[in-house]
Amino acid sequence: MPIVNRISALHEEVTAWRRDLHENPELQFDVHRTAAIVAEKLKEFGCDEIVTGIGKTGVVGLIRGKTNGSGKVVGLRADMDALPLTEITGLPHASKVPGKMHACGHDGHTAMLLGAAKYLAETRNFDGSVAVIFQPAEEGGGGGREMVNDGMMERFGISEVYGMHNAPGLPVGRFALRAGPLMAAADRILIHVEGKGGHAAKPHLAVDTVLIASHIVANVQSIVSRNVDPLQSAVVSICAFNAGFTNNVIPQTATLEGTVRTLTPEMRDFVEKRLHEIVEGTAALFGGTARLDYHRDYPVTRNHADNAIYAGNAAAAVVGEEGVIRDTVPVMGGEDFSFMLEARPGAFIFIGQGDTASVHHPAYDFNDEIIPIGMSYWAKIVENRLPA
Prior knowledge:
This protein is of the alpha/beta class. Helices cover about 35% and strands about 25% of the residues.
């Protein structure tokens, strides 16, 4: 391209949209203000069709090209929801909502796709149609799954779909992606431990759930260190331990909560199996019982090989081939764009955010410098995949 004058000219306007969204964060499916702003702007841009309420509070806008000989529809997706964190940036556009902030950059994702939609609706220099997808509840609610289950792909005839996420630590002007697994399956685990409560001075008469749960925490770490091939990847993290309420009572019950991250279906099955064995076996060893509830949340975010090439080519057209890492190392974070990639061919890409605070940190803020780069990438994907 690399960045056309019209997209550069939109930078200040799109930045203002982004900062307004940042000041007014909303969680999961409760993104009514954000969705209303998105729908209103798509209407202003002259989108040919605008549908709200997909996947509860999602919005889709359809933009038809100058010609439609191909009949093809390319989907571009951005997420809209924020996180339950208290912002500490002190910026003029910091969150005005206590306990909520855009700590993952979804405000920037939404603004960049809105800016691209405005450009594409003005130029329409493509053959076919573009579906701009604004998704709620990426942060744990599975909004991508809900939009797919609501029939979005069929309703708009989407043939391929693309997503993008900012990446702190990746320099501005760089993109990174890979064919195959890019982000991990993200699963939740809840472990219920049952023992026999009693007086702390008489532990021999009790079955100590704190002891059992502590051994479970230690033993599950052996899954990755001793059961997983060192050349493969898995993460098992116990992040919450709840037991007891005072200093002199051995509690009857304890609960543990955590997450499992894997990059292949086979590893996902294996880790789940080993967790059941270790949890139940450890509890039995000490005379108690334990039950594992394993919840499969987000699948592996797996880029389709051809579409990863197309996405890399679009990125290279914006920042040059030297600015694109085409075989980046997978990350163990989860992403519910995975549901869209299970429904249609497509690819997910990381855009460099620069040297900023990490996502999900209270000092994070989206880097407005990258807005024209992201908008240009979206435009180039469309113009490459739907050549006029």
